[in-house]
Design a protein that fits this description.
Layout: H1 4-27, H2 30-36, E1 39-43, E2 51-52, E3 58-59, H3 61-70, E4 78-82, H4 88-93, E5 99-101, H5 108-111, E6 115-116, E7 121-123, E8 125-130, H6 140-145, E9 151-154, H7 158-165, E10 173-176, H8 179-187, E11 193-197, H9 198-205, H10 208-211, E12 214-216, E13 233-235, E14 238-239, H11 244-260, H12 262-269, H13 283-287
Parallel strand pairs: 1-4, 1-5, 9-10, 9-11
Antiparallel strand pairs: 2-3, 5-14, 6-14, 7-13, 8-11, 8-12
């Protein structure tokens, strides 16, 4: 039988070994990490962020940004894992992914869980309604005030939080697992308006089958802050909490892509314009915002 003291010593040695291994990984440079490890990327499978097309190829704004960053490295490879939106951050926390994409907005609450790059896009909220906009919806204020309007969004999304901020009653909110479920509810007449990011709206309405029956409510005024300014989402790539060095490497490369126009070209490829170019804000500033 192994004595208690021997067992404690063995466990202690194991813990020391684990601590040393963790330390060596933390100290390893980002380029060395990429050269010796496959980069695991969690995607929401939602255009325009990261999705599999009809041929099974993974494409999207975030995906192209990641690939562009890795062009300057001797990376071992990328592995994409499709998951639901609410599982992106838990997947990072559980170390199933190194990076997560899906139009993730930087928020103080999320900053406590993962590491974000500086924003790559500035994205307003967009409302999708039936053709002709029968409920005449043009703002979150309309959704809150009109008692016959049923609101829909993706569970865990910032637009769902914006509905709360705008005062949309909980009994008139229906939250779904993904955009496909929200669209089905819209087309089936179970809800009157679905609010998502402008990027998601661009992708959704680009499908002819959807675009024939639905439209984007234009203009649409998003939720406002205490100063009366419309709130915009700041989209970013999210990294595991122990991968701050890897995040910093991506930040440096993304800054170069902003400066030389490469990022704007990727934006245009997926329906964005210069008006969605990310503001010159750091993730530190956005993580501390109220």
């Amino acid at each position: 039988m192994v004595g208690i003291r021997s067992l404690v010593g063995a466990v202690g040695g194991l813990l020391v070994g684990l601590t040393a291994a963790t330390w060596s990984i933390a100290e390893e440079s980002a380029q060395e990490y990429l050269a010796s490890n496959t980069l695991n990327v969690g995607i929401y499978n939602q255009a325009p962020w990261g999705f599999k097309d009809a041929n099974g190829e993974v494409r999207g704004f975030d995906v192209d940004v990641i690939r562009a960053v890795l062009e300057s490295t001797e990376n071992k490879g990328i592995e994409f894992s499709v998951t639901q939106f609410p599982a992106l951050i838990p997947g990072l926390q559980a170390s199933r992914f190194d990076v997560a994409t899906g139009g993730l907005y930087i928020t103080p609450a999320r900053c406590e869980l993962v590491e974000f790059t500086n924003p790559t896009l500035k994205v307003p909220d967009a409302a999708i309604v039936l053709k002709g906009n029968p409920k005449n919806i043009h703002s979150f204020a309309d959704i809150a005030a009109k008692e016959d309007v049923i609101f829909a969004a993706t569970r865990g999304s910032i637009t769902a939080k914006h509905a709360d901020m705008a005062g949309v009653p909980k009994e008139r909110q229906v939250l779904f697992q993904d955009n496909a479920s929200t669209l089905a509810a819209l087309l089936g007449g179970r809800v009157d308006v679905g609010v998502s990011s402008a990027g998601a709206a661009i992708a959704i309405l680009s499908d002819p089958a959807t675009g024939e029956r639905l439209e984007r409510a234009v203009p649409f005024e998003g939720v406002q802050d205490e100063q009366g300014n419309e709130v915009f989402g700041n989209v970013s790539l999210a990294f595991r909490a122990d991968h701050a060095a890897l995040r910093d490497f991506f930040d440096e490369r993304i800054a170069e892509m902003k400066a030389n126009g490469e990022l704007l070209e990727i934006m245009k490829k997926y329906g964005f314009t210069e008006t969605e170019m990310a503001a010159d804000l750091s993730h530190q500033t956005l993580c501390q915002a109220e």
